[in-house]
Fold this protein.
Amino acid sequence: MRKSVIWLLAGVMFFAFAGLLYLQAYYIHIIVKNQKDQFNEAVKRSLFQVAHNLELDETARLLQSQIYHINKKNGRKNRGQSSIAVNRNLLDIPDIQIDSPGNITASYGKSDLRYESRTVQEFLIEQYAYRENLVNEVIRTSMKAYEKPIEARIDFRKLELYIQTELANNNLILPFRYAIKGYNPDSVYRKSPGYDDSSASGTVFSQVLFPKDPPAAQSYTLLVTFPNEGSSIFNSVRFIIPSIVFTFFLLVAFSVTLWIVMRQKRLSEMKKDFISNMTHELKTPVASISIAAQMLSDESMIDMLEKGGPLRESDSFNKITRTIGDETRRLHFLIDKVLQMSLMDDGRLIMKIKKVDVNDLLLNVVQIFGIQVEKYGGTLELEPEATEAVVYVDEMHFTNVLFNLMENAVKYRRPDVPLKLCAGTKNAGDKIVICISDNGTGIRKENLKKIFDRFYRVSTGNVHNVKGFGLGLAYVKKIIDELNGTIKVESELNAGTKFIISLPYVQ
């Protein structure tokens, strides 16, 4: 599948996930807004009813007070006793007598029925006037109730009960805090423990108390806050949270799947390049060996062998045998490199750890590799400055690590500048640092993070004079990690490259 198709499918899927998440977030926003509006409306209704209940309480207290004073003024002993006293004597209900079976007679008192009816009517009119005067007196008194202090107008013991009851009537059962303030915000007449009107406590709901008081009167406001307002509204949308979580998990799973697909495609391309490079690399020594074999089968060589001439001493014969030997070793090295990476992938790499003096090992490598450097007109310098140079390593693999780094310096040399390769050691704390630097082509910064990946080779444009599989630095990194060391690279384009290996030395 082409990369463009993969990216197109990925774009469509990400657009679908983004749309789904947006719709879910939008629905949550709408639900939360509706729930908050309903919550605010229910609280306002509750507080309005609380204010009305306080007005009813004040009116009831005034009525009881007026009844008490009027009764006291009229000489009544019992508070609130009705002045309507209709008894048997006032109504003068007639005596019923039975003279004989079936003969019933009735006798009346001093007055006839018409007189008694008129008396009751006059008495009821008198009581109505009394009640009317009582109500008028209560109204006149309530008109001046605003002159009393707030403590005399409100029963604070009932206030919290009223708030709790009215909130419950509107299906709001949650903790609340309240306070009563005057016109001046600093004048707090009453507040419950824990009341806080800051923004951190949520919305502050207010309700004016006794709104029909004259404008010149002192105004009082009931303030109520809900510490758990946010959690109460959040509980109404909890049912949609699992769908968002599952959608997010699907998005993560899709992203991981896409990353795996892209990684596998990249590995597939790298393996394709590896096979191409390996074919090219193997064809070169095979072709050289084939040419050498053809030269040995040449008639001149056969004639010299038949005549018993000095074949082994001829320059042609030595050149042919040297070529066959070199190319055979090269084939062996390439095959070993592939096998080593395969063994490391399978976890079957066996390392023989022992004490090795890095200065001595580096000296042997420089002596062997120096001939190849001189072949290209370069120089190889050794700077063994470390005084503590004994480390635990596998001598064979660590030697291959040093050879790989130096071989890269030769491969990526600049043709117009003589190669200058430097290998040195020094101590840094409890570590020994091995530096291998060159003045070659260098590496771009964007490629530095990838050079230790398998099959990765730095692009050289249309020039294909650098041979290799892209396994050398991956092998180096793997070996250094197995030895509990670190490796980093410093490089600038057209200024050279420096590899720095750090290993703990044996104390």
Observations:
- Residues 76-108, 461-465 have pLDDT under 50 and may be disordered.
